[in-house]
Amino acid sequence: MIRFADFKRFGVDYAKLMNQGSGSDPSSMLRMLGQATAIHRAGTATVDGVRTTKYVGSGSFLDLIRAQGMQSAVDLSKLPPGMADTKLSFAVWLEKSGLPRQMQMTMGGGAFAGGSMDMTMEFLHYGTPVSVTVPPSDLVTNMASLLGNTGG
Fold first, then answer.
1. 90, 56 in Cβ contact below 8 A?
2. pLDDT confidence tier of residue 102, bands split at 50, 70 and 90
């Protein structure tokens, strides 16, 4: 099983990864789904009161790295055996206009040693005005620096 602290040993450069900003960008996950194999329609559902169509597909961990532009942040030669080929399964629920309402990614096997990861994101309140207050600097942490200093 891979632990958080093992990622540096496996060639993950957190400073680059955090500065790329693509890891938490839902559009990069949609790009990955666009590169997935065997995409097909899997029915309809109502998500947060909106009628949607569900699409599913799959790809590999390596496909995810490429789709999110993380090649420079991950040294593929240091990944544990089988991790690059670890299967990722995706589902996305799109409303009539094509906007995603929900996305789900599941990853198991390979480096997870019998475990798995399941992440679901919901997208709500499209077009709603947002007000952001920047926190004071004493409440902000540079995660790339923090992770670099801890060896993880």
1. yes
2. very high
Domains of the chain: 4-150 (2.50.20)
Interatomic CA distance for residues 19 and 65, integer angstroms? 15
Residue 76: strand, helix, or coil: helix
Contact 124, 130 (CB under 8 A): no
40: its two tokens = 């097909």
Instruction: Look up residue 19 and give its two tokens.
Output: 């500065």
The count of residues in the chain is 152
User: 141's torsion region: left (phi>0), alpha (psi -120 to 50) or beta?
Assistant: beta
Cβ atoms < 10 Å from Cβ of 139: 7
Helix (DSSP H) and strand (DSSP E) numbers for the chain: 4, 5
Per-residue pLDDT tens over the stretch 29-68: 676 667 666 789 999 999 999 999 999 988 877 777 776 6
